[in-house]
Specification:
mainly alpha, Growth Hormone, Chain: A, transmembrane helix, MFS_trans_sf
Length: about 375
């Protein structure tokens, strides 16, 4: 158990180190290094998210049913390093679209893959998911601190080079003592999506996640720009962005124990309400201190919603079905919804930065009622 736990923790750490660079800073890098406007950069990011939703919905489940999951980790990590280079030689808008399209076919697949491994190991290795996932949050934190310091001294142009270093770290982590259970050939029978959607509880959870996780679009893509709008320098921006991840780390470290007897629907309800509060605050009070306070709510708006969905996968599906279900979640909840709301957020941000966050608060509202319905329909009995 302990070797498997440590391997998973290392891979969560390495991947999320790069995620902490790519998610908050890539828009800024496209604007500063490639000379794109906010709208053009938003389009490039949104196209990447659309491609990501396609690759995680179709490519990821297909490959995970045909190849050992450990082999896929190594292949995705190596390909990501190669495809990342495509961003360097070209400067035009359409060249960036092409580079983002190819990169997004591969790199984001490591997210559902790592999460699937975590859910599978909960069953096969009896690992503690929250413990290993907290190392992912630590990696994200360190990534933010490093990139904040580097950009303060060398400017946003250095972002891609730190990303290269991070991707090489991911390669090293995937090749380090892969557990034997992940080196076995997977079952070749592809899990039909239709069988997964027969679970009404899964369907409702997916809709809730599409709303809650998708509503992070403005924060992920414009949070760094918004801090610049508020007059915060790059070093402090990295520190402020880290507050959210530190809150997330604390949550994941305690989640297995604190959430042991809590219904999935109750977790979703709290996450939805926290999301409405968080994004509304950023609209009503455009100042640094409110932004800092709102960062604490990330433990609920992202961490709690994500933990709830992983718990639901563990409860609803077998280890053979989990990668396909995780692919759907990554595609719709973390990809397509974020892509569509990135388009919307870009136009709202252009009008008034705060409107980009108010729009997200409105999007989350239906998730409150869906969570209440889930509780009444499927989880009315106490947890034993």
């Amino acid at each position: 158990m302990y070797k498997a736990q440590n391997w998973l923790s290392l891979n969560f750490f390495a991947f999320f180190f790069t995620w902490g660079i790519f998610m908050p800073y890539w828009t800024a890098w496209l604007i500063s290094s490639k000379g794109l406007t906010v709208e053009s950069a938003s389009t490039v990011i949104a196209v990447g998210l659309l491609v990501r939703s396609f690759s995680t919905f179709f490519i990821f489940p297909t490959l995970s049913s045909k190849f050992p999951i450990g082999l896929l980790m190594k292949a995705f990590a190596l390909l990501s390093v190669v495809l990342l280079y495509l961003f360097i030689p070209f400067d035009s808008f359409y060249a960036m679209i092409l580079a983002m399209t190819l990169f997004s076919l591969v790199y984001p697949l490591m997210l559902p893959l790592t999460e699937s491994i975590g859910a599978i190991m909960m069953q096969s290795e009896r690992i503690h998911y929250g413990k290993s996932r907290s190392f992912g949050s630590i990696g994200y934190t360190i990534g933010l601190l490093v990139i904040g310091a580097v950009t303060a001294y060398f400017g946003e142009e250095a972002i891609i080079y730190v990303m290269f270093v991070g991707c090489l770290l991911v390669v090293a982590a995937t090749f380090y003592r892969t557990p034997a259970s992940l080196q076995e050939k997977s079952e070749t029978t592809k899990v039909p999506f239709r069988s997964l959607f027969q679970s009404k509880r899964f369907v409702i959870a997916m809709i809730i996640c599409v709303l809650i996780q998708g509503a992070h679009a403005s924060y992920y893509n414009y949070g760094f720009l918004y801090l610049q709008h508020l007059g915060v320098n790059n070093t402090w921006s990295g520190i402020i962005l880290n507050i959210a991840v530190i809150a997330e780390i604390i949550f994941f470290a305690m989640a297995d124990r604190l959430m042991k007897n809590v219904h999935v629907s109750s977790m979703f309800l709290v996450a939805a309400m926290a999301s409405i509060v968080r994004w509304t605050l950023l609209f009503l009070f455009p100042n640094v201190w409110v932004y800092i306070f709102s960062q604490l709510l990330h433990s609920l708006t992202f961490g709690l919603a994500h933990f709830a969905f992983i718990r639901l996968l563990y409860q609803e599906f077998s280890s053979r079905e989990i990668p396909a279900a995780q692919g759907i979640y990554a595609s719709l909840g973390m990809g397509l919804s974020t892509a569509l709301l990135t388009f919307a957020g870009g136009y709202l941000y252009k009008e008034t930065p705060g409107l980009a966050f108010l729009g997200m608060a409105i999007v989350v509202l239906p998730a409150v009622f869906l969570s209440l319905y889930m509780r009444k329909r499927f989880e009315s009995t106490p947890i034993k």
